[in-house]
UniProtKB/TrEMBL annotation:
<dbReference type="GO" id="GO:0008270">
    <property type="term" value="F:zinc ion binding"/>
</dbReference>
<keyword id="KW-0863">Zinc-finger</keyword>
<keyword id="KW-0677">Repeat</keyword>
<keyword id="KW-0479">Metal-binding</keyword>
<keyword id="KW-0862">Zinc</keyword>
<keyword id="KW-0539">Nucleus</keyword>
<protein>
    <recommendedName>
        <fullName>Transcription factor domain-containing protein</fullName>
    </recommendedName>
</protein>
<dbReference type="InterPro" id="IPR051059">
    <property type="entry name" value="VerF-like"/>
</dbReference>
<dbReference type="GO" id="GO:0000785">
    <property type="term" value="C:chromatin"/>
</dbReference>
<dbReference type="GO" id="GO:0000981">
    <property type="term" value="F:DNA-binding transcription factor activity, RNA polymerase II-specific"/>
</dbReference>
<dbReference type="GO" id="GO:0005634">
    <property type="term" value="C:nucleus"/>
</dbReference>
<dbReference type="GO" id="GO:0000978">
    <property type="term" value="F:RNA polymerase II cis-regulatory region sequence-specific DNA binding"/>
</dbReference>
C-alpha cells in the first residue's frame, strides 16, 4: 500500500506529519519488483507472479486486515477485493459477459459456462466464498438495510464476479455428481462445498438446502442460493450509482437461476 491508513485519514498537516511513515518507492521500481522471480515461474505464471508477490507483501504489512470493522480499514480491506477480482479474472475459462453487466445480453453473466478444474480454481472459489462470508457474518439483513461505511465500489464489482464464479462452479459440480456421484469430486471440492454450506446455514436461506434430497440437487440449489443471497445483500439503498447497476444484474441473475 502507498502509506498507512493514518496518513490518508489525516485532516491536518500536523496529523499527517505525526502519522507512521513507510518506506517510499518510485512507482516504476515498485511495479518492477512484483515481476521478479525465477525464470521458470515467469514462463508458467507471468501474471500470477505479481499477484503472489503482492499477497506476500500484503500479509507482511502491519495494517493488513480482513476485518471490515477494523480501524485499519478500508485501504487494506479494499486492496484484498482488487486482489480477488484479479485472481478470478486470470482463470482461463472465466469470462464475465460485459454485455450482461450493461444489460445488453441475457447470457447469465458469463460467455463461458465451463470452468477447468485446477488448484487455481480451488483458490479462486475459496476467495469468492470468503467474500460472501463477510456480509453473512455481519448480518445479511443489516447489510441490506443499513449504510455500511466500509462498502466500496471495489466490493460491489468484486461481489458480482464472486457470485458469478460460484454459480458457474456449482453448476459444474451438479454435472459431475450426476455422472459420477460424490466420488467424482476432488477432496478440495468437497471441502469447498462444506464451507459454502456452513455459510448458507447462517442465513435465512438455510431451509432451502434442507428441503432438497440428493447431493446433485443440493449443489444445484446452492448455485441458486448464492445468487439470491448476493441479490438480497444488494437489495437496500446504496450510495454509489454503480451499486444500483450491480443490484439490477443480481436481480436478473437471480431470475435466470429460477428458470
Amino acid at each position: 500500500m502507498p502509506s498507512t491508513a493514518a496518513s490518508w485519514k489525516a485532516t491536518s498537516e500536523a496529523q499527517w506529519r505525526d502519522s507512521p511513515r513507510t518506506v517510499e518507492y518510485y512507482f516504476r521500481d515498485l511495479l518492477s519488483s512484483f515481476f521478479k522471480g525465477s525464470e521458470r515461474w515467469q514462463q508458467l505464471n507471468p501474471l500470477r507472479l505479481p499477484l503472489r508477490t503482492w499477497q506476500l507483501s500484503w500479509e507482511l504489512t502491519s495494517e493488513s486486515t480482513l476485518d471490515p470493522l477494523s480501524s485499519k480499514a478500508p485501504l487494506a480491506f479494499n486492496g484484498i477485493e482488487l486482489f480477488r477480482t484479479a485472481y478470478m479474472r486470470l482463470l482461463p475459462n472465466f469470462n464475465p459477459d460485459r454485455g450482461f453487466f450493461l444489460g445488453e445480453s441475457h447470457s447469465g453473466g458469463t460467455r463461458n459456462g465451463y470452468l477447468r478444474r485446477s488448484r487455481y480454481l480451488t483458490i479462486a472459489i475459496l476467495y469468492a466464498a470468503h467474500a460472501l462470508s463477510i456480509p453473512v457474518r455481519l448480518g445479511v439483513e443489516l447489510i441490506a438495510r443499513t449504510y455500511i461505511p466500509f462498502w466500496s465500489i471495489e466490493h460491489s464489482l468484486c461481489s458480482f464476479d464472486c457470485a458469478t464464479l460460484l454459480n458457474i462452479w456449482l453448476k459444474g459440480l451438479v454435472i459431475t455428481v450426476h455422472t459420477n456421484g460424490m466420488d467424482g469430486l476432488k477432496k478440495s471440492e468437497k471441502w469447498l462445498l462444506s464451507i459454502l454450506t456452513d455459510i448458507i446455514k447462517e442465513t435465512s436461506f438455510a431451509q432451502a438446502l434442507g428441503d432438497v434430497e440428493g447431493e446433485a440437487s443440493r449443489s444445484e440449489q446452492m448455485s441458486k442460493t448464492v445468487v439470491h443471497l448476493w441479490a438480497r445483500i444488494f437489495s437496500g439503498a446504496h450510495v454509489y450509482e454503480i451499486d444500483n447497476v450491480v443490484k439490477a444484474r443480481f436481480d436478473r441473475l437471480a431470475g435466470l437461476s429460477q428458470d
